[in-house]
Amino acid sequence: MSSLTLYIGNYNYSSWSMRPWMVLRKAELPFKEEVIDLDVPGYKDKLLALSDEGTVPVLKVNDDFLPDSLAICEFAAKAVPNLWPKDEGQKQLARDAVERMHTGFAAIRREAPMNLRRRTSGKMPEECLKEAAKICELWDDLLSRHDGPFLFNEWSIADAFYTPVATRFASYDLPRTTRSDTYISELMSDEDYLEWESRAFMEEHVLPETEKVNL
Question: What is the mean pLDDT of residues 15-24?
Answer without folding.
Answer: 98
